[in-house]
Here is the input.
Amino acid sequence: MTTSSATPLETAYALLRNGRAVEAEELMAQRVREAEATTGRDSPVWAAAQCDLGNVLLNSHQLDRALACYRAAAGTPAFVEPEARKDQLTYRTNLGLILQMLGRLEEAETELRANVGDRLDFYGREHAGYAFGLEPLADVLLRRGKTREARRTVEEAISNLWANGHQRVATALALRAEILKADGADAPAFGGLDGLPDELIEQMARALIGRVDDSPSAAGREALTELLGLLEARLGSDHQTTLNTLSKLANVTRDTGGGPGRVEAIQKVLAAYDRQGRTQDAVMAALGLAMAQNDDGDIGGALRGYADARTRAETTGNPTLVAQVLRNWGLALAEDGRAEEAEQRLREAVRAARRGGNDDMLGRSLVALGLFLQHHERFDEARPVVEEGLAVLDPADSDAVMGHSHLNAIVARRSCGCGDAAEMQDAIAESFRRFVLGRLPGDLLDHLDVTIADGDFNLEVQLRREPAPEELEHLNRVMQSALAEFRHRLTRAR
Here is the structure.
């Protein structure tokens, strides 16, 4: 029997999934250095390594640094070998896409138009490779408000991909649906799809859900609502793609201010999971329903929903799931002023989380209990509970940042730091510091001071000793990773 080993990029993505962004970046940076040493800069191997490094940086929220990698890969001299030239066209597309992500839409349009011209020269108008350039150009035209041109461009892409029998037609159809809604077209967003296989209908739905996730717009939400009718007719109400679309519509409704539509959507999802005997999925749906009812001001319905979710969770034998329900239930009771019941549920959540052995759930349950105790001015009890929670949570976790923001108030014997922008900034700065120190050799730094001013981080680093070159590179990567992660946290806190 033969087994295939993971590629360096696959290994890097696995590291990212485990929260080890610095190690993922270091792995790919090593590949760039190896490519430069063996084949030289501007070689196809070096350009591919730069692109892979850019992909890792992109997936760790370091868009500006990813842009530099894509620009380097795309800026290599035109390759002669056909496969290398195809890759180079992909690097040009990536460059346009990340400029779009950064909001530099005019530059993105310029790059993507040039890419379409290069693809036309290389592939010809009838080849699917040409359509691969048309689709992202249509997207950026939509975002620039050029909906008529976007519509013409995406229609050309769809005609090409359909004629070639290429499955990527699914993503182009999702884009067209949003463009049609943005352009105010009377035509149905998903007309003429009778001949499209169910598999591609599913892919189209996933693509549209992804678009609403990445860049929510009124047009995208309208298209998603219309898509739901198509999915129910083609795939059925219990199909996972239909349920995913319902769940996304519920989330969109939450993000735009709640409303009965969200509750109804989750009720449909819950009923489908019950019909299918999917117990754990039903627990999460029941929990989401209770939270939706709470957001809508239906406190009685929400509390009954939490009780139902707990009963469901206990039947799974999964204490971590039980803890999640109990924690949210306790927070809802506290919000409703039912302090005794709230404390009981929060303590039960901690006990269940301990049984489950999940550090994240334990940390979040402890922080929730500690903040409850603080709000009731039980400071001596609150401090060790919050400190224990912080000890097991990753410093970048939002609950850890919240716990830190309250810890100073607990030490000062104040009931709350909620809403205090200065305390939240101090907490983010301290979490940044812990994030960095936890990823460096213990004897490298003498001290690291982190402050926030004018909406960004100020760092003062003093080394205890002269670092080796590889340690200095590692330090720089840790700092860049921390800045990317915590600038995102800072933006959310504002």
Summary: The first helix runs from residue 8 to 17.
